[in-house]
Amino acid sequence: YSTFPHSPRWKKDNVTYRILNYTPDMLQADVEEAIAKAFQLWSSVTPLRFTKLYSGQADIMISFASGFHGDFYSFDGPGGTLAHAYPPSSGIGGDAHFDEDENWTKFTTYNGYNLFLVAAHELGHSLGLGHSNVFGALMYPIYMARDTRNYRLPQDDIDGIQALYGPPRESSALPTKAFPPQEPTEMTSAEAPTEISPHEEPTQITPSKTPMRPKDCDPHLSFDAITTLRGEILFFKDIYVWRKSPYFSGIEHDTISSFWPSLAGGFDAAYEVDKKDRVIFFKDNQYWAVSGYRIEPGFPRPIQNLGFSTSVRKIDAAVHDPNTKKTYFFVGQKYWSFNENTQSMERGYPRKIAADFKGIGHRVDAALQRNGHFYFFHGSKQYEFDIKNKKLIHITKSYSWFNC
Amino acid sequence: FPVVPEKEKEDIQLAKQYLENFYDFKEEKDSLFKSKNLDRMSKKIREMQSFFGLEVTGELNRRTLDMMKQPRCGIPDVRS
Questions:
Q1: A81·B77 Cβ contact <8 A
Q2: In this predicted model, what pLDDT tens digit does every residue of A3-41 receive, in sequence order?
Q3: B68 phi, psi to nearest 5 deg
Q4: CB count, 10 Å around CB of A204?
Q5: Is A252 in the active site?
Q6: In angstroms, how far apart are the furthest CA atoms of chain B?
Q7: Nearest to A236 by CA among A216, A260, A263, A265
Q8: Would strands A60-65 and A96-99 be described as parallel, antiparallel, or unpaired?
Q9: Per-residue pLDDT tens over the stretch A96-148
Q10: Which of A84, A117, A126 to mutate to probe the B interface, most B CBs <10 Å?
């Protein structure tokens, strides 16, 4: 790998980007997905986090243009130079330009250039990487069509970007819910979660190694997020999905990228608004809306769009109550109520979880709504709560849905 | 001097442009000494061949030209 002279890099973890215009070769949603997926390649192996802006000046401005387009490097028509990008700095620094005279595609066919692959390469420059002479590296200067499903960053590129930014921070390597030692809560002493002893800490992963999928009936099994989806229930942890469906027996084991290739693992929360056939995923300070396998255009968006203040940097769990049309967001010991009809946060929130959900006096990992009950997951336990009667009615293991 | 057939002239022009774009090649337009430019170009061809793991000959052979015609990123491979 190589970097630019003097190794310019972004001196912050949170980098913003903005897509200034779109190529007519592709659906706008496919352009956004390709760009988001390209950013996720780099955020998954560094502490970097990317936020999409919709107006104003972003660190990385992305645009399509042909021929002369206002900088010193005019494009050259079809073929030849496909795109270029500038190393980190102010102004044009970080910006990425794509030659509109090329045929851009989301596929890996041979009659067009795969935008995800080219964007991932160019964003490597936007972050400070130069070219690599390792054949097969993403930062190799020559375009090579390849299968982009489950595309993984080659080691040379990981080494290069980590030389500039280091590996993901532990806390954000994969936002698993490694609990800090919890103070005793309202649960009976038998239930109070004990401090997780070091050997129980989730396995620390190095960026190039993905944690193994825990066993279905692992007594310590905990989840990052859980949601219903068209009558099924999806349980998320790291990059893994457990799928429980009324349409087939047993539990299906998948990865997030097999359903939504451009979404990296490590969701913080998820919920379904079944009337809209819509599932919302949360990771760090962004959220995505999907309908089945399709990611809706215009996502990810900052969670502040929902009404959170900037002091809220991520949420722990979310659950929707189809009867009241309200969605509850859980952050630490507090929760918010969001009105799906008016698409706005309700007044008088946040409130203490313990005040309204008696017996649930701790942080919530994940939450699920099923048959008029909420299921709150905390570590390896889940708490079944009767919404109507506002009563905690059952405590059991998190894996109880897996026919253990 | 042998008259360079049109095609070869095109290839040489393409190679010059490529080396200027990506290998910091600067042709001295007004140089009286053609050989000086040829040496300079040959040195840059060697640099490019070495980057891509081609046989380093300093000559504009078919393999080298084919590599120069591949679609690629517009950022230089080496920079001053």
A1: no
A2: 999 999 999 999 999 999 999 999 999 999 999 999 999
A3: -70, -20
A4: 10
A5: no
A6: 37
A7: A265
A8: parallel
A9: 999 999 999 998 766 789 999 999 999 999 999 999 998 889 999 999 888 78
A10: A84
